[in-house]
Write a structure and sequence with these properties.
Blueprint (H helix, E strand, L loop, with lengths): L6 H12 L12 E5 L4 E2 L2 E2 H8 L1 E2 L2 H4 L13 H9 L14 E5 L15 E5 L7 E5 L8 E4 L5 H7 L9 E5 L3 E2 H4 E6 L7 H6 L5 E4 L5 E2 H4 L3 H4 L1 H10 L4 E2 L1 H10 L4 H14 L11
Parallel strand pairs: 11-12
Antiparallel strand pairs: 1-5, 1-6, 2-3, 4-10, 5-9, 6-11, 7-8, 7-9, 13-14
Length: 285
């Protein structure tokens, strides 16, 4: 790095580096931030907020998440950050806290952690130097960590037997993630072509790309009733259009206010697990 980060960011990075080991990270790899691009919070869409803010913000600011909502003083996310970052962010402004994504070490077209959404921001190589990593997900209180200069987590992930939706190395990006500086591309599902989501995406100052898409028939979904439970298969069948689910259909159900969001999340898990283009957990091919 040309200069060392200061303040809370510098302290957090230094502490994680001190407990990390392994070879340097391949600079061709990228961190991705997966999310649902058409979810609405407080009357505003995710992409509209990204365009207005010019940066990607943590759940400590937005109050939203595609995982657990525990980003408040004393919550699980707060306590985890206190532990792993040695208290560096305890008194920090919420906007200064890290944002969460995944290292896309398997080069999947849908990003490094598809369980969190059909779209992703692919970050630049420069952001790797202010990113910390853990395996498994921080929800599981991991004890193994990495930074760009000491990254032994890929071997651990390769050796682990995980479901596709759990097969990722969590990344915490420290410092502002600006759309105009830190994002190589916004990558979207093709179900959003030629509609309001593409129009909103075009207002962002970054490139727009498309992956091959998530799509799952109700017939195929019924073969996987044991994955999240038969009640979520039935919910998926109820909201499907023409016997098919895609990300747009699921978000329309989530935004309607008619369904429990945790239940909708499990329908998304079914689509993400069995209807995506990257079904082999180890590769995109």
């Amino acid at each position: 790095m040309s200069c060392e980060p200061a303040g809370a960011v510098g302290r957090a990075l230094a502490h994680v580096a001190s407990v990390s080991s392994g070879p340097p990270l391949d600079r061709a790899l990228r961190v991705t931030l997966n999310f649902h691009p058409d979810r609405i919070t407080a009357g505003q869409g995710v992409l509209e907020r990204l365009a207005a803010d010019g940066r990607y913000l943590s759940q400590f600011v937005t109050g939203t998440s595609n995982g657990g909502l525990t980003a408040y003083p004393g919550g699980d996310r707060w306590r985890w950050e206190h532990r792993i970052f040695a208290g560096a962010y305890d008194d920090a402004d919420p906007a200064d806290r890290p944002v969460y994504g995944a290292l896309n070490f398997r080069a999947r077209s849908v990003g490094g952690a598809q369980r969190f959404g059909s779209a992703h921001l692919r970050l630049t190589a420069e952001t790797l130097d202010r990113t910390t990593f853990c395996f498994p997900d921080s929800t599981f209180e991991p004890g193994t960590f990495g930074v760009a200069s000491r990254m032994g987590l890929i071997g651990l992930a390769d050796a682990a037997e995980h479901d596709l939706l759990d097969d990722y190395i969590e990344a915490q990006v420290h410092g502002p993630v600006r759309i105009d500086r830190d994002v190589e591309a916004l990558v979207l599902d093709p179900c959003y072509r030629d509609g309001p989501i593409e129009q909103a995406a075009r207002k962002l100052v970054c490139s727009i790309e498309w992956h091959r898409g998530f799509r799952l028939s109700v017939e195929e979904m019924r073969h996987h009733a044991g994955y999240r439970g038969p009640e979520f298969v039935e919910l998926g069948a109820a909201i499907a259009t023409g016997g098919v689910l895609d990300p747009k259909i699921i978000s329309e159900a989530a935004n309607s206010g008619r369904y429990d969001l945790q239940a909708i999340k499990r329908v998304w898990h079914l689509l993400a697990r069995f209807g995506g283009p990257d079904q082999d957990r180890r590769s995109d091919s």
